[in-house]
Design goal:
- The complex is a heterodimer of chains A (419) and B (78).
- Chain A is α/β, with parallel strands linked by helices and 419 residues long.
- Chain A folds into three domains: 190 residues, FAD/NAD(P)-binding domain (3-Layer(bba) Sandwich), CATH 3.50.50; 131 residues, FAD/NAD(P)-binding domain; 74 residues, no CATH class.
- Chain A has 13 helices and 21 strands.
- Chain B has 78 residues and is mainly β.
- Chain B has one domain: Beta-grasp domain (Ubiquitin-like (UB roll), Roll), CATH 3.10.20.30.
- Chain B contains one helix and seven strands, in the order E-E-H-E-E-E-E-E.
- In chain B, strands 2-1-7-5-6 form a five-stranded mixed sheet, with helices on one face. Chain B has a two-stranded antiparallel ribbon with strand order 3-4.
- Chain B is globular and about 35 Å long.
- Classes of the chains: A alpha/beta (419), B mainly beta (78).
- The interface between A and B is large, with 42 and 38 residues.
- Chain B: Keywords: Oxidoreductase.
- Chain B: This is (2Fe-2S)-binding protein.
- Chain B: It holds the Pfam family Fer2_4.
- Chain B: InterPro entries: 2Fe-2S-bd_N, 2Fe-2S_ferredoxin-like_sf.
């Protein structure tokens, strides 16, 4: 089956929702594709234990009311199936979407760095734990350590506490001086200052990072370095994430230029490929406010509304300045490259250890000798880690872009033959 | 309430829970066994890492992005 759209938007987080709503009044036939059961992306992820902010509810209601916007949830992109054509897969099977214009709003994933014990049950990403809790994972009564870097640590800790977890510590790797500088800048964005004040927790520790997750079958405790001192904390959960990395795979597969690990865009949120746009975290980490304004710009630009785009430029500059502060103040310390031991697994799909790849010259060399990055996640986890650990540029994406059913691949092969 | 089975055991969960939540509510939270024999549980929570893949009615699916449905048969042994 093939469906035709004037505008195809991949990702229904804040950027994708804003793009769809900006483009909708033009009357264009718009499709919004997302692999989750509900729109919202990560920050506005819905679920049994989620409390959606008013803004998120407004966007969802407006989307539901826009009759020319079709939402395809639980649907993922399998491959680029031809010129301006993607192969998608949902629960029922595969189908093709043909488009005139495309907006990539593929978001970001957490940077997960390997450390001893990180494969134990009970260890998750920081945003990962927040997402799992929203979906109903119970944490009531469990002792929790949150570690890594970035404002997401505070948000994740707050969600877990609300769900009944007993927070033991938030270990932020950034030094106190950087955090103080960041806090002093916050009055420039009053909403962010208020948010920080609401989320702040007295267990928050600067200059601290995880050394090891302890336990045999599942997590029993965490060893931290806290201001240079070793501290062990018994706990049932460790939520650890080191910031966000843009999801560029689909952009790369479409031939869009990548710069600084993100999809490169111009003032109109246009990519290097004609008719293709990108907005939100896949163009560089910046938070939901920046994603919303970038999404709106991309939506207007894609339907040719240049005046509306120009009107949004000041707003984008304001939030880009916030994003720049985030990137600067939460820059990762080089000592985090030393967390993994020789037998620590880096590739969790193929169970490849740090020692097996540490001496390799680049990603391809590591892959050929160890199968690192050749498993189900296709290097999305270990590729991000290796980029930080060894400076190896991210592996080029391969088809299928996500694990797919045989039927879907047969469809893809038939499409290629027909061409 | 929704009734499903997890590794052959009946399990009831309220409407709207993910399969990842069901793994905790009805089992030890684990989703799969790694190629090296370790038991693994959901990690990224957002459909990226593939650690939470389970068998649902014979098809490989991600527990973190799948909502529980009546009669679902979820297996975590593979």
């Amino acid at each position: 089956m093939t469906r035709d759209f004037d505008l195809l938007i991949i990702g229904a987080g804040p950027a994708g929702m804003a793009a769809a709503l900006a483009a909708a009044p033009s009357g264009a036939r718009i499709a919004l594709i997302d692999d989750n059961p509900a729109p919202g992306g990560q920050i506005w992820r819905d679920g049994v234990q989620a409390q959606l902010p008013a803004g998120a509810r407004r966007y969802r209601q407006a989307l539901a009311a826009a009759t020319n916007v079709q939402l395809f949830h639980s649907t993922r992109v399998v491959a680029v199936a031809g010129p301006r054509q993607l192969l998608l897969e949902d629960e029922a099977g595969a189908w093709r979407a043909r488009y005139a214009k495309l907006i990539l709003c593929t978001g970001a994933r957490e940077l997960l760095l390997p450390f001893p014990g990180w494969t134990l049950t009970g260890v998750t990403g920081a945003g990962g734990l927040q997402a799992l809790i929203k979906g109903g994972v119970p944490v009531a009564g469990e002792r929790l350590v949150v570690a890594g870097s970035g404002p997401l640590l505070l948000a994740s800790a707050a969600s877990a506490k609300k769900a009944g977890a007993r927070l033991q510590c938030i270990a932020e790797q950034a030094p106190l001086a950087a955090l103080t500088s960041f806090a002093l800048q916050l009055p420039r964005w009053p909403g962010k200052l208020l948010q920080a004040a609401q989320l702040f927790d007295h267990q928050y520790r600067a200059d601290s990072h995880v050394l090891a997750a302890l336990g045999s079958e599942r997590l029993e405790g965490v060893r931290l370095s806290q201001g240079g001192k070793i501290r062990e904390i018994p706990c049932e959960r460790l939520a650890c994430g080191f910031g966000l990395i843009p999801n560029t795979q689909l952009g790369q597969a479409l031939g869009c230029r990548i710069a600084d690990q993100a999809i490169a865009v111009d003032d109109w949120q246009a990519c290097s490929r004609d008719g293709h746009y990108a907005a939100g975290e896949c163009t560089g980490f910046g938070g939901s406010e920046l994603a919303l304004v970038e999404g709106a710009i991309a939506g207007h630009a894609a339907v040719g509304e240049q005046d509306q785009v120009r009107a949004l430029w000041p707003q984008r500059r304001r939030w880009q300045a916030f994003a720049d502060q985030l990137a600067r103040r939460f820059a990762l310390a080089p000592r985090l490259r030393q967390l993994a031991a020789a037998d620590t697994l880096v590739c969790r799909c193929e169970d490849v250890s740090y020692g097996e790849i540490a001496g390799r010259s680049d990603w391809v060399d590591a892959k050929l000798h160890s199968r690192c990055g050749m498993g189900a996640c296709q290097g999305r986890v270990c590729g991000g880690a290796a980029e930080f650990l060894f400076g190896w540029p991210a592996p080029a994406p391969r088809t299928p872009l996500s694990p797919a059913r045989i039927d879907s691949l047969v469809q893809l092969a038939e499409a290629n033959e027909a061409d | 309430m929704i009734e499903l089975s997890l590794n052959g055991q009946a399990l009831q969960v309220a409407d709207g829970y993910t399969v990842a939540a069901a793994l905790c509510l009805g089992g030890d939270g684990n989703s799969r066994t790694s190629v090296g024999g370790q038991r693994r549980a959901p990690l990224c929570g957002m459909g990226v890492c593939q650690e939470c893949r389970v068998s649902i009615d014979g098809q490989r699916r991600l527990a973190c992005q799948t909502l529980c449905r009546p009669g679902m048969r979820v297996e975590t042994r593979a």
